[in-house]
Amino acid sequence: MRNFLAALLFGASALAGAGAAAAQNGPLRIEIDQGVIEPLPYAVPDFIPETSAASEFANQIARVIASDLSGTGLFREVPASAHISKVTGFDNPVKYADWKAVNAQALITGAVSVNGNRLTVRFRGYDVFAENELGTGLQFTGTTEGWRRMAHKVSDAIYSRITGESGYFDSRVVYVSESGPKNDRRKRLAIMDYDGANVQYLTNSAALVLAPRFSPTGDRVLYTSYESGFPQIHVLDVGKVQRKILSSGDGIMSFAPRFAPDGRTVVYSQTQGGNTDLYSMDIATGAKARLTSAPSIETAPSFSPDGSQIVFESDRSGSQQLYVMPVGGGEARRISFGKGRYGTPVWSPRGDMIAFTKQNKGRFHIGVMRTDGSEERLLTASFLDEGPTWAPNGRVIMFTRESQGSTGRALLYSVDITGRNLKPVKTPDGASDPAWSPLQQ
Amino acid sequence: MSGLKLALAAVAVLGLSACGTNPWNDDLNSGGGSAGAGADALDPASPAYFQQTVGDRVLFAVDQSNLSPAAQATLQGQAQWLARNSDYVVTIEGHADEQGTREYNLGLGAKRANAAREYLISQGVAGSRIKVVSFGKERPLEICSDETCYSKNRRAVTVLAGGLTG
């Protein structure tokens, strides 16, 4: 109850402090943790094609940027139909009065050129009411087929300049693609851009796969596969789509693998004699160490970003709760004390929060709390929400939402850690167990 | 869960027993625990007899892995059958209903399968003949989202596998 009240109070204070989107006599700024109510209006006219082959990208890049920015709920696009000015040259002076007249507080202009399969994007951001540039213009170069990534990089730069936080648009999500009815569900690993574009399948659906996780650099994925008939840990090189089985031992179940921040160690659950405990394994040598030894279920580990601690779930108290222990094992401290059951803890990439799944009175919630368990806030409620994953900037959470009944289906959703901007993430089929990559390099 | 609710749920199960057949029945587990038509005609040494007459599965209470008296009786029957048909090995598959997070349910299914395994061993079946695997909530038999289905999905199924002697 105390936690629930705290959540309500937080909500109220967030509302009271909101609306600071654009104090017109100060610099253009959104304070993300203030729970923005009034999104900041911006314009992003089509980019200028500087070579003939660039024309097909000039409009699409601007559209992806608009989708990124407006998709955050922090920004609102002033549509092209309302624009008074046309941007005809990237280096032409900006007619601020025309953008003020349509109340575009930020303006993004850009130019695209294509040379062979090389695509170059230049852009500038403007604070319209202050009549100056938002930072200096930047240029990104890549391949034409990677044009969406360059649009995301522009969005990340704009987002970062206005919010003061790093962005999350040039990132990917690995997840489990689901098809078929509930009692004949086919699952395969898929990877996509954070916004659902460029879906690629990494496994076929011959073997059940569960709960993928990226390596700290995003180049490898750990997951659980039933290929051998028993759940075992696999690691997959995303670029080459090469797989390797990490766990061994006929008939020994291993699951819930996660990379340590060093990318060399894996922590996972292993079941023997019906008892599930946490182990760590050195990927190169295969050397294992047992981290917990309780007769209860210990699973769903997650490292603190500094690699010193592990948060995990255990039902040693009689019901699923969250615990934090040193990375090498040892005494675990319980951090969840609210009503109900707590599972699937995931440490924020900023290190300041832990996201979790909470089950109470037949409902599921995604929530966040401080790493000591204080300031619990529930962000969602439904028949079945589970498995949060953090955007690389620690401001947005993606999770699985499954609908009820015989036609029940799993889909991905995202929500801000303020609880705002809850929305589905577009996937071609059913989808579950998302894991967000770090920002791409 | 009160006794009254349980009783109502049981009535509902009986009332609905004819429907809810599922398409996921192309393996040895399709039988269901109790006898179907023609059960007496089955060869007592056949896998079909094991599935349908002995009963190949036991059910569990919400978030529990202890064996009810009914479950123990089924497992006694399984142990006797396995004693008579000693060239079979088994894999016990533990399952959970959808009311729980994925990885926790893998652990829970493993506890259920292991509880059945330990009981079979206590009844004289060699441990070397019994493997366990958990599917958590990944393989529901019944697909509605209420207790009538959940109660059938919280199960440990003893699956007969390749004979020891081939």
The description of the largest β-sheet of chain B is: 4 strands, mixed
Strand content of chain B: 15-25%
Helix content of chain A: 10-25%
What is the CA–CA distance across the termini of chain B?
Answer: 47 Å
Total of helices of chain A? 4
- Tally of discrete structural domains of chain B: 1
Can you tell me the overall shape of chain B?
globular
Given this structure, which CATH class of the largest domain in chain A is correct?
Mainly Beta
Please, what is the oligomeric state?
heterodimer
First-to-last CA distance of chain A: 44 Å
The side-by-side strand order for the widest beta sheet of chain B comes to: 1-4-2-3
Q: How many strands appear in the DSSP assignment of chain B? A: 4
> Number of helix segments of chain B?
5
Structural class of chain B: alpha+beta
Over the alpha carbons, how many angstroms does the gyration radius of chain A reach?
Answer: 23 Å
Q: Could you state the CATH homologous superfamily of the largest domain in chain A? A: TolB, C-terminal domain
> Which word captures the global form of chain A?
globular
